[in-house]
Amino acid sequence: MQPANVTRGHARSPLLDWWPPIVWWPEPARDLIEPGSPPVSATLVLSPIAESVWSARNFALGALAGWDMTGLADGMGLVVSELVTNALRHGLALCGGPRREVIRLALVRRGRLVTCVVFDPGPGTPVLRDPSPFEPGGLGLHIVESLSVRWGWCPVAPRGKAVWAVLGG
Description:
Helix content: 25-40%
InterPro entries: Anti-sigma-factor_SerPK, HATPase_C_sf, HATPase_dom
Structural class: alpha+beta
Number of domains: 1
CATH superfamily: Histidine kinase-like ATPase, C-terminal domain
Keywords: Kinase, Serine/threonine-protein kinase, Transferase
Mean pLDDT: 83
GO molecular function, one term: protein serine/threonine kinase activity
Protein name: Putative signal transduction histidine kinase
Largest sheet: 5 strands, antiparallel
Order of helices and strands: EEEHHEEHEE
Pfam families: HATPase_c_2
CATH class: Alpha Beta
Radius of gyration: 16 Å
Distance between the termini: 50 Å
Number of strands: 7
Shape: globular
Number of helices: 3
């Protein structure tokens, strides 16, 4: 019998133990890395509740303050809010599992750049939409695209995806 994977007294799924290694950087944005810039990261596990958007935003702003990168705060706050909201609305809704699934947020700094990575267990792919003028949503990824140097997503085995956006420059 194998021991349970437990954090703070709660069993967790090994399928959701994805964290980017400290040297992780999205492959399509590797050309942006400044030579010799050491990686630094901050991570947070988010519950599947609406208040997690606020928690994620505050966590990101705190990390930027700690890295003396408050010039990115406004853009990062919006990007984090949009990506976490999408993960809650689409990623968790489509995963088909119980609502005890979690979302994970990671900020990875390389020099003057910070990548925001949001992981969710859902199978759906992020899509830039062109909503009608009277549609109440659908512009989140357009906001992410306009505020980031580059953004994208990648599948995470065995299931789920990581949606990322690079800010700074």
